[in-house]
Specification:
The complex is a heterotrimer of chains A (342), B (337) and C (255).
Chain A lengths: L1 H19 L6 E2 L5 E2 L8 E3 L2 H10 L13 H4 L24 H6 L4 E6 L3 H14 L3 E5 L5 H11 L3 H24 L7 E5 L6 E3 L7 H5 L3 E2 L8 E3 L2 H7 L3 E4 L2 H7 L9 H4 L3 E3 L16 H12 L8 H12 L6 H9 L3
Parallel strand pairs in A: 3-4, 4-5, 6-8, 6-10, 10-11
Antiparallel strand pairs in A: 1-2, 7-9
Helix pairs in contact in A: 6-7, 7-12
Chain B lengths: L5 H20 L7 H13 L7 H35 L12 H14 L4 H25 L5 H26 L5 H10 L7 H20 L1 H7 L3 H6 L4 H23 L5 H13 L3 H25 L7 H18 L1 H4 L2
Helix pairs in contact in B: 1-3, 1-12, 1-13, 3-8, 3-11, 3-12, 3-13, 4-5, 4-6, 4-7, 4-11, 5-6, 5-11, 8-11, 9-13, 12-13
Chain C lengths: L1 E11 L2 E12 L3 E5 L6 H9 L6 E6 L2 E2 L5 H5 L2 E4 L11 H6 L14 H13 L15 H14 L4 E4 L8 H16 L3 E6 L2 H7 L2 E6 L2 E7 H4 L2 H8 L3 E5 L6 E5 L1
Parallel strand pairs in C: 3-8, 3-9, 6-7, 7-8
Antiparallel strand pairs in C: 1-2, 1-4, 4-5, 9-10, 11-12
The chains are: A alpha/beta (342), B mainly alpha (337), C alpha/beta (255).
C-alpha cells in the first residue's frame, strides 16, 4: 500500500512541480543540505510548533497554518488574523498528525522545520521532500542559534533584510545580557530548580532543551549533573538539592508551593524566590522552546540576578510583542502576561 | 493454623519489617533510621530531638506517607492476585485480568487530559476501574456459558484491550509538551508525588477490600473448586464470586489510582507466598498481604534511591517479574504446591 | 428421609435431555443409575442434587421442594462426590476433607475442633488417616476417590450422590471403593451412584434405575430388574450372562 502511494505521489509531484516552478539558486540549510528554493516563496508550511512560531514572528502572511491552533486566551496576544489560520497538524516530533495529501493540497512553496539537527530528522526531511517534491529545510532550534536561524530563514524566503532585522534584535539582546552575566562571579550564580507538572516534580536534566535558557544564563541547574531530557524526581531529592531559585510555568503549583509544608524548608521557598514564567501567548522559558524565549531571557535574567538587571520589563515586553507577535499590548494585557496566569 | 505454616508466615512478616527498616534508612536526603528513632523517642518524651527540621520533614512528611502507600499498594495488589488466582483456578492470573488496571488507566489519562486536580484524577481512575470490571461482569453474565470463569477471563481480555486503545487515543490527542509526559510517566507507575493527603483515598478502599477478602478467606479454598462442586458443598458461589471480585477490584483500582499501573506484583507475590505457607487460601491471603507490602516497599525504595531521578515502578517490577515468570512457566507443576 | 424427583424434564437451556422422570431415593438404601453415555445419567444426577434446575417437574427433599433449600441447608442433607479429578492447587488431604464441613459453618467461620474431629473420623473410616498431610495432587486415582468420599462423609449428610465413582480407578481400587459405598448404607445413608458397569450395580445396589436417551426403561429391585433382556434393551447391544457354577452368582459381559 505504501509503495502505491509513494509512486502516485512521486508521479504527482514531478508532474506538478516540474513545468511550473522557477527555481532560485539553492540555499544550504542548517544541516548542510542544499535546498532548491523557488524564486517566489509565498506559502510556507511549518513542520512543528517551534517552526510555526518562528514563521509567525518573521512573516505571518507566509505561515500556512498552526500545528495546533492557539487557544482563544492566547489569540488575544497575537496579531489580527493569527487565529484565522487553519490547524494543519505536525510533520515531525511525537505523533505526526499531518496527512501528506493535506500537505500537498495546501501547495506550500517550502517546508520549514526548527529543532534538533540529527540523522533522524534529516532522513525524515529527505523522505518528505522525495515524496512530495516540496523543498524541506531544517533549521537549528537551539537558543544560541536564534540569530543564525533568522538569517537563514531570510535567505530561504528571499527576505534577507527582514531576517537581518530579527537576527540583530536577537544578537543585541543576547549580547547585552551575556555581557552583564559574565561579570557575575560563580558563587553569586544561583542554583535553580525548573519545576514542571502539576506537583512540580518533573524537571529538565543537564543540556535539555527545556532548561536551555536557564543554563545559558549561567545558573546552575540542580538536576544538571545527569544529561538528558525530562525526568521525574521526588520531593526528597529536591530537598537534598535545596535550590536557591525555583522557576515554573504552572500557576497552580506556584500558588500551592508557597504554603506547602513539605517544600517549606527549601531555600527558594524560604526566601520567596519562586518565579512563575509568563505563558501568553507562548511560554517565556519553554512551551515550546523556540524564539519566544527571547523576551523570556530578560525576565529570567531579572529573576536570577535582580541587582544586575534593574530594567523595567514593561517597555521591553511591549517592544517584543509588537515586533514579534504583531500586537500592541494594553496596560491590562501586559499585567496579565507578566502575572503568569493562563 | 498448622504448625508447618507458622515459620513461613513469620518469614513474610520479617520481610515486611526488614523492608520498613531499609526504607527509612536510605534516601536521597541524608536522613536515616537513627534520626527516626530520635524523633519518635523525643516525641514520646515531649522534648526536642536535635534532628534538623528538614530531616524531620523528610522522614515524617515525605518518606512516611510514601512508605505507607507502598506497603498498602503492594499488599493490595498481592492479596487481589491471590484472590483472583483462586477464583479463576489459575496460578497465572493477576489483578489486571478483569480490566481493572486498564479502566483505571483510562480514567486517569482522561483526568489529566481535562486538567483536573490531583484528587479528582484519582477519583476518575477509581471510577474507571470499577466501571471496567462492572462492564466485564455484566457482559460476562448476560451471556450464558457452561464455563463462566473462562468467559469472564476472555471478556476481561477484550475489554482490557478496548480500554487500552482508549488510553492510546487520549495520549494521541494530548498536548505533547504538557500532558503527554505526565500521562506516560503515570502509566509506568510511580509513588514519587505521594503526600499524606494521597493516603486518604487509598487507605479507606484498601482497608475495606482487604478486610472483606480476609473475612472470606476460609471459603476461598472451596471457591477454587469447580462451580458445581462448590455449590454442592454449600457455598453460594454466585454472590460470593461477586463479593470477592468486587473487593479485589476495589483494592486494585485504589492502588492503580494512586501509583499508576504496577504490574507483576499480583502475579509474583502470591507464588512466593505459596512456597512459604502452602496453598491453603486461609493462610495464603494473609501471607501474600504481608509479603506484597514488603516486596513493593523494597522496590519503591530502590526506585527513589538508586539514581537522582525516579525509576518508574513498572520497570523495576517487570525486571524482577519477567525472569520469575519464565522460571514459573518452566517448572509449572512444582510451584503449585 | 426421601429424596425424590417427580415428573422431571431435565436438560440445559435449549436442550432437553430427559422427560417425565420419576426417581425416589430413601435413606438406608443404595440406588444405581445405569445407562449408555449421553443418556442423561449425569444430568439427572445434577438435577437431583439441585445443581441444575429442572425444566419441568419438581425435586423434593424431606417433604419440601428442593428449590426451597438454600445451598447451605441442602448441603447439610445431600453430599456430592464427583469423579476424582486433577486439582489445580495442592491442598493437603486434611484441607480437602475439611472443605466438607463448609455447610456446618457460616461464611466467615474457620474450622472448629468439631470440624477437625469429623474430618479425622471420616479419614479413619476409609482407612486413609495416614494420608492426612499429603498433597492431594500427589495421590493415586484410588486414593483421591477415597478422599472425596471422606469429604462427603464429613459433611454428615443423609444422602450421598456419586458420579461414576469407579470410572478412573484401577481394578483393585474399584472393589475397594465399591465396598465402602456398600458400607455407607449400613451407616444409614441413602446412596445414589451412576455407573457404566452393571456388575457394580449388581454387587452393591438395592435398586437400579435404567435410563436410555432420557427415558426410564426400567426401575426396581436389582435382583429382578437387572437381567439380560433389560440390559440389552438399555445398551442396544448383545449382553452375555455368566453364572458361577458353585454359588450361583452372576456377572454380565459385553456380548
Amino acid at each position: 500500500m505504501t509503495i502505491n502511494r509513494r509512486t502516485v505521489l512521486y508521479g504527482l509531484a514531478t508532474g506538478l512541480a516540474a513545468p511550473r516552478i522557477a527555481w532560485a539558486a539553492p540555499v544550504s540549510d542548517n544541516a548542510g543540505r542544499a535546498i532548491a528554493v523557488p524564486q517566489k516563496v509565498e506559502r510556507v508550511f511549518a513542520a512543528g510548533p517551534p517552526a510555526a512560531i518562528l514563521l509567525y514572528t518573521f512573516a505571518p502572511e507566509l505561515l500556512l497554518g498552526w500545528t495546533r491552533r492557539p487557544a482563544p486566551a492566547e489569540c488575544v496576544f497575537l496579531g489580527a488574523g493569527a487565529c484565522d489560520k487553519p490547524e494543519v497538524g505536525r510533520l515531525t516530533g511525537r505523533g505526526n498528525t499531518t496527512n501528506l495529501e493535506v500537505l500537498l493540497n495546501l501547495k506550500p512553496d517550502l517546508i520549514v522545520d526548527v529543532g534538533t539537527i540529527n540523522n533522524t530528522y534529516i532522513s525524515l526531511a529527505d523522505r518528505v521532500q522525495t515524496q512530495t517534491g516540496i523543498p524541506y529545510a531544517l533549521l537549528d532550534g537551539r537558543f544560541a542559534a536564534i540569530a543564525a536561524t533568522y538569517r537563514k530563514l531570510g535567505e530561504l524566503t528571499h527576505r534577507q533584510s527582514q531576517g537581518e532585522t530579527f537576527a540583530k534584535y536577537a544578537e543585541s539582546t543576547v549580547a547585552t545580557i551575556k555581557a552583564r552575566v559574565d561579570q557575575i562571579p560563580q558563587d553569586k550564580r544561583p542554583r535553580v530548580y525548573y519545576a514542571r507538572g502539576p506537583r512540580g516534580l518533573e524537571t529538565g536534566l543537564g543540556g535539555s532543551i527545556n532548561v536551555e535558557t536557564i543554563e545559558f544564563l549561567g545558573a546552575r541547574n540542580v538536576a544538571g549533573d545527569r544529561k538528558g531530557g525530562m525526568a521525574t524526581v521526588s520531593v526528597e531529592q529536591i530537598l537534598a538539592w535545596n535550590p536557591d531559585v525555583i522557576v515554573t510555568i504552572e500557576p497552580a503549583f506556584a500558588a500551592s508551593v508557597r504554603s506547602d509544608t513539605v517544600w517549606a524548608t527549601i531555600s527558594a521557598v524560604k526566601t520567596g524566590r519562586i518565579y512563575l514564567s509568563p505563558r501568553l501567548p507562548f511560554g517565556w522559558v519553554d512551551f515550546p522552546p523556540s524564539v519566544n524565549r527571547l523576551i523570556g531571557l530578560w525576565w529570567l535574567a531579572k529573576a536570577l540576578y535582580p541587582d544586575q538587571f534593574p530594567e523595567d520589563l514593561g517597555p521591553l515586553a511591549r517592544d517584543f510583542y509588537r515586533q514579534f507577535y504583531h500586537v500592541d499590548l494594553t496596560g491590562a494585557q501586559l499585567d496579565r502576561v507578566l502575572s503568569g496566569q493562563n | 493454623m498448622s504448625r508447618s505454616s507458622v515459620p513461613g508466615m513469620l518469614i513474610a512478616l520479617a520481610v515486611l519489617i526488614a523492608a520498613l527498616l531499609f526504607a527509612f534508612t536510605v534516601g536521597r536526603y541524608p536522613a536515616g533510621l537513627g534520626d527516626l528513632f530520635h524523633v519518635i523517642a523525643a516525641k514520646l518524651a515531649g522534648r526536642p530531638s536535635g534532628v534538623p527540621h528538614a530531616a524531620i520533614d523528610v522522614l515524617l512528611r515525605i518518606r512516611g506517607p510514601r512508605v505507607l502507600a507502598a506497603v498498602l499498594v503492594g499488599s493490595a495488589l498481592a492479596i487481589a492476585g491471590a484472590a483472583f488466582q483462586g477464583l479463576f483456578r489459575n496460578p497465572l492470573v493477576s489483578p489486571d485480568l478483569l480490566g481493572a488496571s486498564s479502566g483505571a488507566a483510562l480514567g486517569t489519562v482522561l483526568g489529566i487530559y481535562f486538567s483536573l486536580g490531583a484528587f479528582a484524577i484519582e477519583a476518575t481512575a477509581f471510577a474507571g476501574g470499577l466501571a471496567a470490571v462492572g462492564a466485564v461482569y455484566l457482559i460476562g453474565s448476560a451471556m450464558r456459558a457452561r464455563d463462566p470463569i473462562l468467559l469472564l477471563v476472555l471478556t476481561g481480555v477484550v475489554i482490557g484491550a478496548l480500554l487500552g486503545a482508549g488510553v492510546g487515543l487520549v495520549k494521541y490527542v494530548a498536548d505533547p509538551y504538557n500532558q503527554l509526559p505526565a500521562m506516560t510517566f503515570w502509566l509506568l507507575g510511580s509513588l514519587a508525588a505521594t503526600t499524606a493527603s494521597d493516603l486518604v483515598p487509598l487507605v479507606g478502599p484498601v482497608a475495606l477490600g482487604t478486610l472483606v477478602l480476609l473475612a472470606l478467606r476460609w471459603r476461598m479454598n472451596v471457591m477454587s473448586l469447580p462451580d458445581e462442586e462448590a455449590r454442592a458443598l454449600g457455598v453460594p458461589t454466585g454472590p460470593l464470586r461477586i463479593a470477592i471480585i468486587a473487593a479485589a477490584t476495589l483494592v486494585t483500582s485504589a492502588s492503580v489510582a494512586t501509583a499508576g499501573i504496577v504490574g507483576w506484583v499480583g502475579l509474583v507475590v502470591p507464588h512466593i507466598a505459596r512456597t512459604l505457607v502452602g496453598p491453603d487460601f486461609a493462610r495464603l491471603v494473609l501471607a501474600a498481604a504481608l509479603l506484597g507490602g514488603g516486596f513493593l516497599l523494597a522496590i519503591d525504595t530502590v526506585a527513589r534511591t538508586a539514581t537522582a531521578t525516579e525509576i518508574p515502578l513498572g520497570i523495576l517490577t517487570a525486571l524482577v517479574g519477567t525472569p520469575f515468570f519464565i522460571w514459573l512457566l518452566a517448572g509449572m507443576a512444582k510451584t503449585w504446591s | 428421609m426421601i429424596l425424590s424427583g417427580h415428573a422431571l424434564t431435565i436438560g440445559y437451556s435449549g436442550h432437553v435431555v430427559g422427560r417425565s422422570l420419576d426417581v425416589t431415593l430413601r435413606t438406608g438404601e443404595v440406588l444405581a443409575l445405569l445407562g449408555p453415555n449421553g443418556g442423561g445419567k449425569t444430568t439427572l444426577l445434577k438435577t437431583l442434587l439441585g445443581l441444575l434446575p429442572p425444566r419441568a417437574g419438581e425435586v423434593r427433599l424431606a417433604e419440601r421442594p428442593l428449590s426451597a433449600y438454600s445451598d447451605r441447608e441442602r448441603a447439610r442433607l445431600v453430599a456430592y462426590v464427583p469423579q476424582s479429578h486433577a486439582a489445580t492447587f495442592a491442598f493437603t488431604v486434611e484441607t480437602v476433607v475439611l472443605m466438607g464441613r463448609t455447610a456446618h459453618g457460616n461464611l466467615f467461620s474457620r474450622p472448629t475442633a468439631a470440624d477437625r474431629d469429623a474430618a479425622a473420623g471420616a479419614l479413619a473410616r476409609f482407612g486413609i488417616a495416614e494420608l492426612r498431610e499429603r498433597p492431594y495432587t500427589e495421590l493415586s486415582g484410588g486414593e483421591r476417590q477415597l478422599v472425596l468420599l471422606a469429604r462427603a462423609l464429613a459433611q454428615e449428610p443423609q444422602f450421598i450422590v456419586l458420579d461414576e465413582p469407579t470410572a478412573s480407578l484401577d481394578f483393585g481400587n474399584q472393589g475397594r471403593v465399591m465396598g465402602e459405598i456398600r458400607a455407607l448404607k449400613a451407616s444409614g445413608h441413602g446412596v445414589l451412584f451412576t455407573t457404566h458397569d452393571p456388575n457394580h450395580a449388581m454387587r452393591i445396589a438395592d435398586r437400579v434405575y435404567l435410563l436410555r436417551q432420557g427415558s426410564r426403561i426400567a426401575e426396581g429391585v436389582t435382583g429382578t430388574t437387572l437381567n439380560r433382556p433389560q440390559l440389552e434393551a438399555l445398551y442396544g447391544a448383545p449382553v452375555e450372562l455368566i453364572t458361577d457354577r458353585d454359588d450361583g452368582r452372576t456377572a454380565f459381559l459385553p456380548g
